[in-house]
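User: Good morning. I'm curious how zinc ion would be positioned relative to this chain. Could you predict the structure with it bound?
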Amino acid sequence: MSTELEDYSHKRFNILTGEWVLVSPHRAKRPWQGQNEAVNNEKRPTHDESCYLCAGNTRINGEVNPKYEDVFIFTNDFAALQKDSPDFSVDDGLLIAQSEKGICKVVCFSPDHSKSLADMDANEIQKVVFAWQKEYKELGGNDLINYVQIFENKGAVMGCSNPHPHGQIWSQSTLPNEVDKKNTQQLNYHQKNGSSLLGDYLAQELEKKERIIFENDAFVVLIPFWAVWPFEAMIVPKAHKSSISDLNEEEAYLYAEAISVLTKAYDKIFNTSFPYSSGIHQAPTNGEDNSHWHFHMSFYPPLLRSASVKKFMVGYEMFGSPQRDITAEKAAQMIRGLV
Ligand SMILES: [Zn+2]
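Assistant: Good morning! Here's the predicted structure, ligand included:
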């Protein structure tokens, strides 16, 4: 790697969004004076009577969860998007708005209240992958739905109010901002070069081996060159797959293994249940040619230098662009040692 990237301030280009991140490696050694939060590493029970996601418990709307044994999915009782919202638009000079319809679901990964993905083995996570595939296909097949966003918010620090292992699926009529940016970047690259943007990027990463954390026959876990969050990571399929529905059973297992390896390593960084937001970006379900899409899963963890010291996106990052101190290469080296 160019030594300038290790020693001097510079900005790196995010090929997927077309945006830049400022990197300040020379600052990584300055003394820390900041907030220290109390760490909560208490053991949770396997079943919590007061948890609305645990098997057999009653949810706020009065429905009773079945005594599920692996993955359980239900339509969100307090969804951010409404399926039956009427079609309307506001086009009043510079005041512009349009109706948005959607369906939101909750995906319980396991009936065991005490677990997280990091505590589940690849076979258990494979069942979650199967459930994601089924939902992507079913929701995407609905005429209302043109994009299916699968994500997880883990940890109180990420604003997750319930520690029960679960994620969400928000599906809607139009492409959300982040997806729209990636759609444009991948489409432009595909039209110009006739190949997958992320596939070509992966080939370069596999050759350099500076930011790879783990790989198996079908997937690579790496810190992207343009990562913003200190321990941001991405899981990318080696073959060109537009969405998770392109994965066969064996590939679904290898995907689950990649998730398992990364989340287990995360927990070892600061010896805590590592918080993050993770999400899958994949082909829209709008019936168009989306062969330019190369699906990937991103993890955005907020922790910076201990279980209680997190990164804030404030000041310059609110008004200018995101910034990081520790380089993607250093972060990859650290996590690789914990796999
Ligand atoms: Zn629970």
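The chain has a mean pLDDT of 94. Residues 122 and 205 are 25 Å apart (CA to CA).
Let me know if you'd like a different ligand tried.
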